[in-house]
Amino acid sequence: MPTDQTEPDRFRADVRAFLGDRLPADLAAHVAKGGYPRSECIRDWIATLAERGWSAPQWPREWGGAELPPRLHAILDEECALANAPAVESLGISTVGPALLEFGSPEQKSRFLPSIVTAREHWCQGFSEPGAGSDLAALNTRAVREGDVFKVTGSKIWTSSAHEADWMLCLARSDPDAPRHQGISALLIDMRAAGVRVRPIRWMNGVHGFNEVFLDGVEVPVENLLGTENGGWAVAMQALGPERIFVSRVAENKRLLRQLHETMATPDADGHRLADDPAFADRAAALEVRLLALEERFVQFLDDLAAGRPVGPEVSMLKLTGSRLIQAFEALIVEAHGPAVLPFDAARTAAEGLGLEVGAPSAAMAALKMLHHRGYTIAAGSSEVQLEVLSRRVLGL
Fold this sequence. Notes:
By secondary structure, this protein is of the alpha+beta class. The chain has helices spanning 8-22, 25-32, 39-50, 70-82, 91-103, 106-117, 232-240, 243-246, 250-265, 278-306, 316-337, 346-352, 366-372, 383-394, and strands spanning 123-126, 142-146, 149-156, 167-173, 184-190, 196-202, 208-221, 225-226.
């Protein structure tokens, strides 16, 4: 029986029942410890969510989504986070899919969307370059059209999961004489094509997440042009647009709040609890108040979306606040665990996605996750970029 989407309480209960029935206990336990799930586990979980249209909850049903209103999407994210389900951080679903839905030809949609929503094919995003990170329009990768193909030459960096990707959504400069934002094309590149080379960039904990990607005369058929030739900037903005609200990471912050409370309530060897320390409890309460304020503003933006009202540049405050808040929660969790966060075995983390457990299970990865998520204030638009947007476009400074 379809969920009555006009009743958030019923929908929340439906999600909880689904998670209780379908979320593997060993996977949830791994995530609860802060571990990095194996790629095949994440793909299997995405395929499970896709049975309900929840892997891409706001996509049209025609293409495997559930057409959830923004508020119900937020409830789904929150319940998944609190159940310790792995985050569905699939670039195919979050960035490539929205771009295909808006700009893809019927053939491109039929070819790619079904395999994206069920995680049968994995995508990476070829946007950032060594000299073009926050200033994306400065990219230098070239796409030269020769008959029915584009020949693409250049390099990309910080390319998440490129070593596991089947396809890349790549931005390349196809008209070097056009203004910066007008001479870029978006191309769908087969990662198995001749001339594609991937080199790993390992995190400090040994996990392989980022990559450099080198493109040496890679031939891309013209039918893999997404949108119009030299119209890639519009494709990029569509690809990046959906993340602006949900990158506030309210659900993830709520999971960290619960983890902090659990850590504070656990007695140490002498029987003392941080929950009974007024100074520490005040610091935890201050973060909780910041989270409540973030959630209130987040809900207001969701209501704007649901009502069809445009979401303006002020949405940058969500990303700015949410990413900083995650870092603050994780720093306090590390402090709460104390010395138990220090033991570290990079080989085990790389192989198993877990750290050494000498204290509470959640302590093993606390420091590593804190260091890893320092990047949250860089990825998806750095804090400096968000402040620039707010100061110029909202405050008029």
